[in-house]
Design brief:
The complex is a heterodimer of chains A (819) and B (572). By secondary structure, chain A is an all-alpha fold. Chain A is 70% helix and 1% strand. Chain A has a domain of 169 residues. Chain B contains 15 helices and 30 strands. The longest helix of chain B is centred in the first third of the chain and has 20 residues. The chains are: A mainly alpha (819), B alpha/beta (572).
Chain lengths: 819, 572
């Protein structure tokens, strides 16, 4: 812990405990609590140590609890803090000795009992108690002071935060009794060696009894809380608590499930979901499977669908049950496509009725589609996958106004035509269904539906986006089929061309992103590359580079970049027009996104497997423009480009071999000279002193990489101009500040000199060798400083404490001002 | 109360309402779709159209070589295009007291009604309706008179001959009532009978009923009408829009509590959302121009064209097509563009406020100033020297049978680079294109109809709750091509009364009350007996005097003399 922060604590405590001063905002108090929580990890200071070092904390707790006018936010904070400090046995003992635990947690301990009505105070009380529940003493404190009753009462608190927190504390108590922390004691519940102590049995029984009573209650909120407690116990507690509770709740649970109250479907399913994940599932007397089946069969149709939708998402689920749930999930779609043969009559009627009702039709279909999507994500083997896919396509067609070949209740089609929700969800499902090989034979129909959506002028922008996402996926899986190219050139490209001219920029943007993704997905497909470049699509992409919207221009740059990559694989030529337009965007575009995209495109070209001779001529300009950009992200992307360039040049040196054949020059030196000529070294050094920290950090890491190679070369091999560069001044000033260190390194006016030079001579440095400059800069120290400076000021505990004090002081000043 | 339906066309209505001894004609739309049976009238000599073979029946029994020509696999009438008029036999048009016009598209048959029928009444319309209606009529007359035809085809209309003709001519109905276009003299005479009214202005008709126009939000000066007496209210809703376009928004609240609502002029393309169509229009236009082609937009010289120009004003720059010229060619192009800028009080609030800046309400003024939009009365003259391609041409007539558009069809039809974009919903684009086949140019159908759709009208009717709704028959059933689209029809709690051409509907409400005034001296003499709190009765003995549909109870001369018993001669 920073000793400076410690010195602030007494003032903070005085300020917070003073009821005349307004409390700081909740966020500051929460941050302060986080800092207290972190203390043991950071400085190995536990509650006891802190209390001994900082007695002001004891005074603070005492004065807040005894103050009649204390603010509810401060009391809540104090209760949480007390709990944190009592998290260790020693801290607990110290607080107990001072009588502060009873003062904070026993009912009637505070001098402002009315504050209990504040939900934030009750929540603080519960959180404080939760923090303490780390040791046996705390548990005894809870038991001895009858706090279990308070907790059970708070379980039904009107505040949802308080009631769920009360549940959490109760579960923690039950869990703690079975944990290893109690194993040393003879009181551990169910311990084989040690029989259950009567005190603990009474505690667990009290909680379990309350849970069972809640399930049997006629009051709906109590039942809900009982079910929440049950699901928490099942998911968080071990044996024997879990089995004990399950045995007791089984009968009321069966009653609730068979009662078929729609409002309880969700909490009941949460309980069963938790039960499925435990060994209870495999114990026949626990009837988990039976209960699940009863859930599916109980209640009205709506609950049955909700239940089925939840069952299909279960990871561990008996296969038979899952099949049953899937049949129910598929029912609405099958109903729409009149494939009702082996459906139970009763359920069929329910589905038809719900489909014909305005309120339930859409939600039922959405549930069905989402269920199929979930299953498709796990590649679940449906019985008849193509039929499921056909049903989804039929629904999508109905949504776009098609008339099905059979009669459909008019309300259904009225509801569905143009319904964006169903369209989006249906397209997501169609997207997910692309994972099944069985569907590949349906590709023409699928592309037909997708094309219809892409062509429909009334398709909402979000629907189009989904259609494009699905199309990318289907294009990817259908890439081996030769008829795909025909579809792309004859149907898809004309639809996309129109969309690139859409009035809505979102649509233009999504379309260009789609073209980028499709081109990437079909990389290496020479047929596609030919179609792309022989159609008018490529010229449309080029014209989109001048779109009025910055995001669209950026996406167009991406699309052109990807298209060029596919072209280059065939021709190894970079179209002149592309380079000109890209450079124009980098140098003139007023928005950052397109400029970033240009640098990324160059990086991607450079990374490509085919070298581009034409690229070499532009790299220098890209590095220079990108490095001098005002947008820090453009600079970062430029440094990423520099990284790739370094990687390629220094590893393969493809350029070095071209520029010199002199036998006495090493390939490394040639490569470094090449990088220097491209302006990469100037870029790195300039970026090192950039005003944006991430830029400096990236440049520093690249220079460190370079240093490992450059230190070994001859000083005269790669010499850099100091003058006329931004970095020159920085290096000069550092050199002047450290004369001893640099005297043996410098190269003055191109010739090696002895190191006995005066400062005035040093000012006249014109050139410096690369090895010297990377040594001179003390990059390791710079990197450490840069890493440390990440969010250092903003998140420091000291600044937090200063803020708290300042806010209190400002309030005082404001009050004075007001008077 | 009776409604005589002289037109079955849902968007070109012509109905006559007999109400309280007044005879009111509601709109007089002219059905121009009949012109689709005729050959186009080329402005410049067309070798293709002039060399078409004449039609002779297969067995040679019927020879109409001079009247009918075979073109692109179909038979067309080679004569000046004719139009289908509202029914003129159902009632004596000379008995019509007033004609209420709701918008400039619904008055195109006015000269046929007011001239040569004995009509002596008054026509009521708003100022923009009159002025723009006049422009549309002038344009129609100009289109016809610029290309006079020496002969008029009449033989083919003979019933015995018509049934032997190939489709679709043999299926054309009421061909004998089709008429050639009126003359400018008839137009001027008809329009001289128009009396201007402003929104919410109340006009008394013979003291019997009061009529008042309300903004309908569809076009400049477009109106719905309220026709009411003291105890009855009839609303006439025709061509209304709830979309935010250039006209003043629709006044819905005044339509509340109507006994009868006559509903016409809903959108003709209920499945086409105007926003989506506008997007399609721009995308297709942009694609064509980028590919070096020209765009032809057959349109009326007023209405949606203002919105299209406004949309393109923003779009062209954003699509980097700012240098593409727009040409608006019509005999009334200049007047139309200028009129739109001067009717500020008839525009939406946003446009009205521009006038006070001062700025022109429509951005086409700036397009004209910067030479991006040029307008010409015809393709002859300056246009031919200033014309450069690729370009966008807006010109009429949307039927493609007459007007400058015919020339552009002949000029650009052969190149697949060019595109024709249909934006007017009044004509089937396939029918319009029929005499130009085979056609290489791309055809795009983007009908922009801003009138109420079925969803909007259902909401409106729920809001204003009329007791009875009367509407054209097509609104009571799904479109024939989409029988499953029950969302594309009126579904009301009480089924609407449907009408078709020549229907006579007895409107389902009886007049039960009439207002009668008591003269003060008679009122003074009444002796009231209180029956219960707030209700008093008296026996009245007076003379009922009725004049100009106003009824007054006057004191009888002998009433001042004492009488043993009062007798009741009239009841108030």
């Amino acid at each position: 812990m920073d000793s400076e922060c410690l010195s602030f604590l007494p003032r903070i405590c005085v300020a917070l405990a003073d009821p005349r001063q307004s409390p700081p905002d909740d966020t500051s108090l929460e941050k302060l609590l986080d800092w207290f929580k972190d203390l043991p990890n950071q400085r190995n200071v536990n509650g006891e140590g802190l209390l001994q070092q900082q007695p002001c904390l004891l005074e603070f707790i005492s004065s807040v609890c005894k103050c009649k006018d204390t603010d509810h936010a401060i009391l809540s904070f104090t209760l949480k803090l007390t709990g944190l400090l009592a998290a260790t046995e020693q801290g607990f003992s110290l607080l107990e000795e001072e009588g502060l635990l009873a003062c904070a947690f026993k009912r009637g301990g505070w001098c402002a009992p009315d504050l209990w009505h504040e939900p934030s105070v009750r929540s603080g009380w519960l959180q404080g108690l939760l923090h303490t529940l780390n040791h046996r003493k705390a548990l005894e404190f809870v038991r001895e002071n009858g706090l279990i009753k308070v907790l059970l009462h708070l379980q039904n608190d009107p505040s949802l935060f308080v009631s769920s927190l009360a549940n959490e504390v109760l579960v923690n108590i039950l869990n703690f009794m079975t944990s290893s922390k109690m194993s040393n004691s003879s009181d551990a519940v169910g311990s084989a060696q040690c029989p259950l102590g009567p005190d603990w049995v009474s505690v667990s029984s009290e909680i379990i009894r309350a849970g069972v009573e809640a399930l049997g209650s006629k009051k709906h909120p109590q039942v809900i809380q009982g079910l929440k407690l049950l699901s928490l116990v099942l998911s968080q507690c071990g044996e024997p608590i879990r089995s004990m509770l399950w045995k007791d709740v089984l009968v009321p649970l069966e009653v609730l499930i068979n009662g078929g109250s729609g409002l309880l479907t969700l909490p009941l399913m949460t309980v069963l979901q938790a039960a499925v994940r435990t060994p209870l599932l495999s114990q026949s007397d626990c009837k988990v499977k039976e209960l699940m089946e009863a859930m599916l069969g109980a209640g009205n149709g709506k609950d049955c669908f909700q239940c089925a939708a939840l069952i299909v998402t279960l990871e561990k689920c008996p296969e038979e049950l899952k099949r049953k749930a899937i049949n129910i999930i598929l029912l609405p779609l099958r109903c729409l496509s009149t494939q009702l043969q082996d459906i139970e009559k009763e359920l069929e009627i329910v589905v038809k009725k719900q489909l014909s009702q305005k309120s339930s039709c859409i939600s039922l279909l959405l549930q069905s589609l989402s269920g199929i999507t979930e299953l498709a994500h796990t590649k679940y083997p449906f019985e008849d996958i193509p039929q499921v896919t056909c049903s989804v396509m039929l629904l999508l067609r109905i949504c776009s106004g098609h008339r099905p070949s059979f009669s459909l209740p008019s309300i259904v089609s009225t509801q569905l035509i143009g319904c964006c929700k169903v369209q989006r969800c249906g397209l997501d499902t169609l997207d997910a269904l692309s994972v099944y090989n069985e569907n590949l034979d349906l590709r023409h129909e699928v592309f037909g539906v997708l094309l219809e959506y892409l062509q429909n002028p009334d398709s909402h922008a979000t629907v189009l986006k989904k259609a494009l996402q699905a199309a990318v996926r289907w294009v990817g899986v259908c890439s081996p089929f030769p008829d795909l190219l025909q579809f792309i050139s004859r149907d898809l490209f004309p639809a996309l061309e129109k969309r690139t001219c859409d009035l809505r920029w979102e649509v233009r943007d999504s379309t260009l992103e789609f073209i980028t993704q499709m081109t990437a997905a079909l990389r290496g497909n020479t047929g596609y590359a030919e179609v792309l470049h022989t159609s008018s699509m490529f010229s449309i992409l080029l014209s989109s580079l001048a779109d009025v919207e910055g995001y669209v221009r950026a996406s167009a740059v991406g699309a052109v970049g990807e298209a060029v990559t596919s072209l280059v694989q065939q021709t190894e030529l970079l179209p002149e027009e592309v380079l000109t337009q890209m450079m124009a965007i980098l140098s003139q575009d007023t928005e950052g996104f397109p400029r970033r995209a240009v640098v990324k495109a160059f990086t991607s070209w450079l990374k490509g497997t085919h070298p581009l001779p034409a690229l070499d001529q532009s790299l220098s300009a890209v590095l220079s423009l990108g490095g001098n950009d005002l947008d820090w992200e453009v600079k970062i992307h430029t440094l990423e480009l520099a990284d790739v360039l370094m990687e390629r040049t220094l590893t393969y040196c493809p350029y070095a071999t071209q520029i010199s054949s002199s036998p006495d020059e090493t390939r490394l030196t040639q490569a470094l000279r090449k990088l220097k000529d491209l302006g990469l070294l100037d870029l790195l050094l300039n970026s090192l002193f950039d005003c944006d920290r991430p830029v400096c950090e990236k440049a520093c890491s690249l220079l460190l990489k370079l240093r490992t190679l450059a230190v070994d070369i001859d000083r005269s091999d790669v010499v850099l101009d100091v003058c006329g560069n931004r970095w020159g001044d920085e290096v000069g000033s550092r050199y002047l500040n450290k004369p001893q260190a640099e005297r043996s390194l410098c190269v003055i006016n191109g010739a090696k000199e002895s190191c006995e030079k005066m400062d005035s001579d040093l000012l006249s440095i014109r050139e410096i060798s690369l090895p010297d400059v990377v040594r001179l800069l003390d990059l390791d120290s710079m990197q450490r400083t840069l890493i440390l400076s990440r969010d250092h000021v903003v998140n420091s505990p000291r600044s937090l404490m200063e803020d708290i004090l300042l806010s209190v002081q400002q309030t005082e000043e404001n009050i004075v001002d007001c008077y | 109360m009776k409604l005589y339906c002289l037109s079955g066309h849902p968007t070109l209505p012509c109905n006559v309402l007999r109400f309280k001894s007044t005879t009111i004609m509601l709109d007089c739309g002219l059905d121009i779709t009949a012109s689709l049976y005729f050959l186009p009238l080329p402005l410049v000599h067309s070798p293709r159209l002039s060399k078409l073979p004449g039609w002779v029946s297969k067995d040679g029994a019927v020879n109409l070589e001079k009247e009918l020509k075979e073109c692109s696999g179909r038979v067309f009438v080679d004569s000046q295009p004719e139009f289908c008029l509202p029914e003129r036999e159902l009632l004596d048009l000379s008995t019509i007291d007033v004609i209420l016009i709701s918008n400039y598209h619904c008055m195109m048959a006015l000269p046929y009604i007011t001239e040569h029928t004995g009509f002596t009444g008054t026509v009521y319309a708003t100022e923009p309706t009159l002025q723009i209606g006049r422009l549309l009529m002038e344009e129609l007359v100009a289109f016809m008179e610029r290309v006079p035809k020496a002969h008029t085809a009449t033989c083919w209309k003979n019933k015995d001959i018509q049934r032997l003709l190939p489709a679709p001519l043999k299926d054309a109905v009421d061909v004998c009532s089709w008429r050639r276009c009126y003359s400018m003299q008839e137009v001027n005479s008809a329009l001289s009978k128009v009396q201007l009214v402003g929104y919410s202005q109340k006009v008394e008709l013979f003291g019997a009923v009061q009529v008042s126009p309300l903004s309908s939000g569809y076009s400049l000066g477009s109106s719905n009408w309220i026709i009411q007496s003291h105890y009855e209210k009839v609303s006439y809703v025709s061509g209304s829009s709830l979309l935010t376009t250039h006209p003043q928004p629709m006044d819905q609240s005044s339509l509340k509590n109507s006994d009868v609502l006559i509903l016409t002029g809903l959108t003709q393309i209920p499945t086409a959302n105007p926003d989506g169509m506008l997007g399609e229009f721009c995308s297709n236009l942009s694609m064509t121009i980028r590919a070096g082609g020209n765009v032809l937009v057959p349109c009326y010289s007023s209405g949606v064209i203002y919105d299209l120009l406004e949309c393109l004003y923003q779009f062209m720059d954003s699509a980097n097509l700012g240098n593409t010229p727009f040409y608006f060619i019509s005999p009334v192009a200049n007047s139309s563009l200028e009129f739109s800028q001067i009717f500020a009080e008839w525009l939406c609030q946003n446009k009205q406020s521009k006038v006070y800046l001062p700025e022109p309400p429509f951005p086409h003024a700036e397009l004209i100033q910067t030479n991006k939009l040029k307008h010409y009365p015809s393709i002859h003259g300056d246009f031919s020297s200033e014309f450069r391609q690729p370009c966008v041409v807006f010109t009429g007539h949307p039927s493609l049978r007459f007007g400058d558009v015919v020339h552009f069809m002949e000029l650009w039809g052969k190149s697949s680079l060019n595109t024709i974009i249909f934006t007017e919903p009044d004509f089937s684009y396939l029918e319009a294109l029929a005499p130009y086949q085979p056609l290489a140019m791309k055809c795009v159908y983007c009908p922009i109809d801003t009138r109420l759709n079925f969803h909007q009208v259902s909401k409106l009717l729920k809001e204003i709750q009329p007791l009875h709704v009367v509407c054209p028959e097509p609104y009571t059933q799904p479109p024939p091509a989409q029988p499953h689209r029950t969302d594309l029809m009126l579904e009301l709690q009480h089924p609407p009364m449907a009408y078709r051409r020549c229907s006579v509907l007895g409107l389902p409400f009886r007049r039960r009350y009439e207002r009668i005034h008591l003269l003060p001296e008679l009122a003074k003499s009444l002796v009231l007996s209180e029956m219960k709190t707030g209700v008093s009765v008296a026996t009245v003995s007076a003379v009922l005097h009725s004049k100009d549909n106003k009824h007054v109870l006057q004191v009888r001369e002998f009433q001042n003399k004492p009488r043993p018993h009062a007798s009741c001669h009239g009841t108030a």
